[in-house]
Input
Amino acid sequence: MRVYAKQAKQSLEVQNHIAEIKLRAERRIGEFSKELPINKGARTDLTSPHDGERSKTSFLSEAGIAHPERFLSKPKDFTYDELKSLLAGFGYEKVKSGKTSGSRAIFVNPETKHIIKLHKPHPRPELKRYQLNYIEETLRNRELIQ
Output
C-alpha cells in the first residue's frame, strides 16, 4: 500500500502511516502465530496429519508474511521488509532507534528478551549474504527454524 501511496504522490506522512499500519498488523499476526502448533519436519506436499489444524507456516503464508522456506533458500532478492515480516512471525519487534542510529536496526523478542542486531541494507533494499547467514544461524540457535 505504501508503494501505491507513493505512486499517487501522497505525502511522506501518509506513506509512513501506511507502513506503521502494516507493521502493527504483522506484529499482531506474530502474536497469533505463537499460539499455533509448529509442524516440525512435516512434508508440505502432503495433507496435514492434524485433521483441520493449521500449521504456523501455512498461517504465516496465508497472511502474506515471509516464511522460512524462502528465507532459507537465501535468494539474492530477499529484502529488509521481508526480514521484518519473518522476524515478526517469530515474535520479534523492531526497536525504535534514535535519530542518530543511522542504518542500525535492532529486533527484540519481548517474550525471550533475545536481541538481533544488524544494519539496514542501502541503497538497495536487498540483504547481503552474510546478513542472511547471520539471521539463519541466530534463528537455528534459538530453535525457531530447523
